[in-house]
Design brief:
By secondary structure, the chain is of the alpha/beta class. It contains 7 helices and 5 strands, in the order ααβαβαβαββαα. It is 60% helix and 12% strand. It is elongated and about 115 Å long. The mean pLDDT is 83.
Length: 291
């Protein structure tokens, strides 16, 4: 049996661990709430963009835009959204399994240090990596989206796809994949924006007489990159909510385990202390009997 001094030392260590994990749980809960609020704040923007695309839907030739043109897929372009830090349970590992299942040629852009490290370790083609800051400013995420769009337009990749942890609820984050480019159609983009904006009814095509300057095609050419930027940003915010949720659950589990271990150690300490007292009583009694 371990000495009471060793057990006291372990009890102190476990108490410190429990205090740290409890603090990290509370911080993660606060950050998760802020990430969810940031995602909800983008709903009016999505709703307005859906209306603008709807006004263009019947006035342009979709096949003329490079974002809507189909082409043979030789190399996939994938944006992998992970975390910068660990201690978030199996969140990143589940994303890495999804990447490991990709057998076709692909080039990657990583948002988050963990993803960049995984791609480098597995010797996959990493075009660029970007940090995953907690605040996730739109200006920073736009750089990632514009970089991958340039690779797509230059022919380096033939698709642009997202792999990210989809936020279902606090306990469930599902690794998911989403194709961004080429777009299926303007109708699909409008429906996607409606789903993100929480609209009760789907936005219908606008048949009013509208004058576009210089032309409807030029307006669409300026609008679709904004749509891609917004899609990437929306999913980065969702990934942040998933990260903080997973970390909160992981830290709560660690705190509960520390509490349970603390109870076991306390019991063990009391047994060792009682055994020591009993031994001392026996030694005193034996000495008196011998005298």
């Amino acid at each position: 049996m371990a000495s009471t001094r060793d057990i006291r030392r372990r009890i102190k260590s476990v108490k410190n661990t429990r205090q740290i994990t409890k603090a990290m749980e509370l911080v993660a809960a606060s950050k998760m709430k802020k990430a969810q609020q940031a995602a909800l704040a983008g709903r009016p923007y999505a709703e307005l963009m859906a209306k603008m695309l709807a006004s263009l839907a019947n006035r342009v030739e979709e096949a003329q835009h490079p974002f809507l043109a189909r082409r043979e897929v030789r190399t996939r372009g994938i944006i992998l959204i992970t975390t910068d830090k660990g201690l978030c349970g199996p969140l990143n590992a589940n994303l890495f399994k999804l990447v490991s299942d990709i057998r076709t040629p692909a080039k990657y852009a990583a948002i988050g240090r963990k993803g960049a490290q995984f791609l480098a370790r597995t010797k996959r083609d990493l075009l660029a990596d970007f940090p995953a800051n907690d605040r996730a400013a739109f200006a920073d995420i736009r750089v990632v989206a514009e970089f991958m769009v340039k690779q797509y337009l230059d022919g380096v990749v033939d698709t642009v796809e997202l792999i990210w942890p989809r936020f279902r609820n606090t306990l469930v984050q599902v690794p998911s994949a989403l194709p961004l480019l080429p777009l299926q159609s303007l109708r699909h983009a409008i429906d996607d924006l409606d789903s993100h904006s929480g609209a009760a009814a789907m936005t219908q095509a606008d048949d009013r007489e509208i004058l576009f300057e210089p032309t409807a095609a030029v307006v669409l050419e300026a609008l679709l990159p904004l749509y891609i930027n917004r899609e990437v940003y929306e999913h980065v915010l969702e990934a942040k909510a998933s990260e903080h949720s997973a970390r909160m659950v992981a830290m709560k589990t660690a705190k509960d385990n520390a509490t349970k271990l603390l109870g076991d150690l306390t019991l063990e300490y009391n047994k060792a202390r009682q055994a020591g007292i009993t031994q001392e009583i026996l030694e005193i009694a034996a000495a008196q009997f011998a005298a």
